[in-house]
Design brief:
2 domains, Rossmann fold, CoA-transferase activity, 17 helices, CoA transferase, six-stranded parallel β-sheet, about 15% strand, about 40% helix, transferase, formyl-coa transferase, domain 3, CoA-Trfase_III_dom_1_sf, about 400 residues, CoA-transferase_III_domain, alpha/beta
C-alpha cells in the first residue's frame, strides 16, 4: 500500500545528518523526496569513509556507510545552484514541492533566490524548514554548527562521562551525533505539524530549527533539575541523578545494567537477590532515601552482584520482573533474536553492492510498511527521470546543462 505521505513532495537541499535524517523519515512514510546534490561531489557524507559499501572512484563517490544511514528512499539529482541555470531548475522543483528542507548557513541561500521568502513567494503553500546550528536569530546565528560543538555548548557533555576524580574523568560526547539526530526528529515533527496546519488554512510555513535549541530541549530532566534547584548537574558516569539503583554493576564475568524505576521493583530485586535486610533498611525503602544514601547502597549491591555471572543475574531478575540487561556491542545487537523479530535490519538488492543493508524505520503502522521500498541512491542516480519527468527537459537541454557543468 502507498505510504501515508504518498501525496507529499519534498525538495531536500540538506546535507550531512540533521536535515537528511528528517527527510529520510518523510521518505519512509511515502513522501517523494528529491535530493539535490553538488555535481561530482554530492552530499559531504559521500566522502566520509571508510567503511565503504561501494568503493569510490575518480568518477564516482560510491556509497559510504555514513551516507546510506540517512538517505534511504530518496531520488538523487545533481544541480549546481550557484549558477543561474541551476537556480532556475531548483525553483521549478520548489514550485511543485510541498516541503523544502535545507541546512545552509543563515542567509546562505538568499543570494541564489532559494531562501524561504523567495520560494514561498512563488509557492505560498510551501513548508520551508531551515536547519542550522544556532537558529535564524541571536548573536550566534551566523556561526557554523556541528554536532560535537553543539554537544559541548548545550551542556550535554557536562553531564556525560566519569565524575571528577574517577579514572578517565573528562567531559564526554555521546557515541553518535545525538544533537543532529534529535534536531532531525524535531524538524520532522515540525514539518508534519505545518502540513496539518496547511490542510486547515491553505497557508504554508517557515520553520526555524536549531541544533543548539533542540539539544537543550532534549536535556529533559537534567535541564529541569537545574531550573528547579539552581544547581548545575554534573557528570555521574553511569549513575542516574534522580533514580537509584539505576546504573552499571560488575558481575563475576562482566557487567549488567540494573534499572530499578520504583520502590516496588526495588523490593522485588532485594527478595530475588536474597538481600532482605537491605530491602527492609529504612535508608533504602524509598527512592528519595536511596538517592540520599546512594553510595552506601551501591557498595552493598556491588558486593552482592559481583558474586554471580551476568547470565545468572539476568535470568533471575527477569523472572521477578526487575528491569535489567546486558551491555551489548553493536554486533550483538543485530544478532539478538528480539531485534531480528522486530525486523530492524533491512537488506536491499543492488547491482553494484550486491546488498545495501539498512536499519529500518522503528515506527510501525498496522496498515502499511514504514520503511521506504527503495535504498539510498547513488549520486545523480535519478537525474534523468527528475529532469525529464518533473521539469520536462529535453535530452538536448540536459546535454547542454551538463556541458556547462550545471548538472
Amino acid at each position: 500500500m502507498p505510504g501515508p505521505l504518498g501525496h507529499i513532495r519534498v525538495l531536500d537541499l540538506s546535507r550531512v545528518l540533521a536535515g537528511p535524517w528528517a527527510t529520510q523519515f518523510l521518505a519512509d512514510m511515502g513522501a517523494d523526496v528529491v535530493k539535490v546534490e553538488r555535481p561530482k561531489q554530492g552530499d559531504d557524507t559521500r566522502t566520509w569513509g571508510p567503511p565503504w559499501l561501494v568503493e569510490p572512484t575518480d568518477k564516482d563517490p560510491g556509497l559510504s556507510a555514513y551516507t546510506i544511514a540517512a538517505n534511504r528512499g530518496k531520488r538523487s539529482v545533481t544541480i549546481d545552484f550557484t549558477t543561474p541555470e541551476g537556480q532556475a531548475l531548483v525553483r521549478k522543483l520548489a514550485e511543485k514541492a510541498d516541503v523544502v528542507v535545507e541546512n545552509y548557513k543563515v542567509g546562505g541561500l538568499k543570494k541564489y533566490g532559494l531562501d524561504a521568502d523567495s520560494l514561498r513567494a512563488i509557492n505560498p503553500r510551501l513548508v520551508y524548514c531551515s536547519v542550522t546550528g544556532f537558529g535564524q536569530t541571536g548573536p550566534y546565528a551566523k556561526r557554523a554548527g556541528y554536532d560535537f560543538l553543539i554537544q559541548a555548548m548545550s551542556g550535554l557533555m557536562s553531564i556525560t562521562g566519569q565524575p571528577d576524580g574517577a579514572p578517565g574523568a573528562e567531559p564526554m560526547k555521546i557515541g553518535v551525533a545525538m544533537s543532529d539526530l534529535t534536531t532531525g526528529l524535531y524538524a520532522t515533527a515540525a514539518i508534519l505539524t505545518a502540513l496539518v496546519k496547511r490542510d486547515h488554512t491553505g497557508e504554508g510555513e517557515t520553520i526555524d530549527v536549531a541544533l543548539l535549541d533542540c539539544q537543550i530541549a532534549a536535556l529533559a530532566n537534567q535541564a529541569s533539575n537545574y531550573l528547579v534547584s539552581g544547581k548545575a548537574p554534573v557528570r555521574m558516569g553511569n549513575r542516574h541523578p534522580n533514580v537509584v539503583p539505576y546504573q552499571v554493576f560488575a558481575t563475576a564475568d562482566g557487567h549488567i545494567i540494573l534499572a530499578v524505576g520504583n520502590d516496588a521493583q526495588f523490593a522485588k530485586f532485594c527478595k530475588a537477590a536474597g538481600l532482605d535486610a537491605v530491602g527492609a533498611d529504612p535508608r533504602f525503602t524509598r527512592n528519595v532515601d536511596r538517592v540520599i544514601n546512594r553510595d552506601a547502597l551501591t557498595d552493598l549491591l556491588g558486593g552482592a552482584i559481583a558474586g554471580r555471572t551476568s547470565a545468572d543475574w539476568i535470568a533471575l531478575l527477569e523472572q521477578h520482573g526487575v528491569p535489567c540487561g546486558p551491555i551489548n556491542d553493536i554486533e550483538a545487537v543485530f544478532a539478538d533474536p528480539h531485534v531480528k523479530a522486530r525486523g530492524l535490519q533491512r537488506d536491499y538488492p543492488d547491482d553494484r553492492a550486491g546488498t545495501i543493508p539498512q536499519v529500518g524505520n522503528p515506527v510501525k503502522f498496522a496498515s502499511t510498511d514504514t520503511t521506504a521500498p527503495t535504498p539510498p541512491p547513488y549520486l545523480g542516480q535519478h537525474a534523468r527521470e527528475v529532469l525529464t519527468g518533473e521539469l520536462g527537459l529535453t535530452d538536448a537541454e540536459i546535454a547542454d546543462l551538463k556541458a556547462k557543468g550545471v548538472l
